[in-house]
Amino acid sequence: FEMGVPFRTMLIQPGAIEAITDQSGHFVMDLPPGDYTLTTYTEQFVHPYCPPTQSTPFTVIGGSAVAVDLADTSSAGVDLRVLGFSGEARPGYPHGVYLSARNLGATASGLTTLTLTFDAVLDYAGAEPPPNVITSSTLTWNLGSIPPFGTKGCSAWLEVPPDALLTGTVLNYSVTATSTPDTDLANNTIAWSNTIVNSFDPN
Question: Which residues contact 176 (CB under 8 A, 6 or more apart)?
């Protein structure tokens, strides 16, 4: 079984046309007839194997589909990387917080937890999927195993109290992914801030 590498950027020349592989490692591009080369951008954990060079020539003949298969190799173990961001925070309204953990490695992760810590002024208003553990300012999800090069994510909605005096308050968030083993713990936690802005009257 050979799995595709998702979300990998490919470059087609001439024309400097870029394509990104889908969740399964495939991509489709409509091209006029002609001779082209396909190049994969270098990534930290994935290396060209067959062909051993990164640029692969191919020819498109009018009206026919062309399949270009590239074999990559990786000896990287599990390495989780977390991402997170939040929407605009306004007094009296919930705002979204979006989190994900991506396995950059070529082997499946162990059981993985994703933990969001948020500012104490905020109230929990819901999440998808529901967290496994909810405390006053912390939400924890048990994500199970993340497949090689796979991603799992979740969303939370946090409400700002309806107090106009909170405008300008800086909110703090952090997200941590935990799994054993993990070859690089430096990218397992991120932190960011978000400033409460004025509410508005849509009328």
Answer: 82, 114, 115, 117, 188, 189
Distance of CA 63 to the CA centre of its chain: 36
Q: In this model, does residue 155 exceed pLDDT 90? A: yes
> Phi/psi of residue 142, each to 5°?
-95, 110
Indicate the average pLDDT of the chain: 86
Instruction: Report the alpha-carbon angle 56-58-64, nearest 5.
Output: 150
Please report the pLDDT score of residue 21 as a whole number. Answer: 82
Q: Quick check: pTM over 0.90?
A: no
Q: Is the Cβ–Cβ distance between 200 and 91 less than 8 Å?
A: no
Cis peptide before 14 (omega within 30 of 0): yes
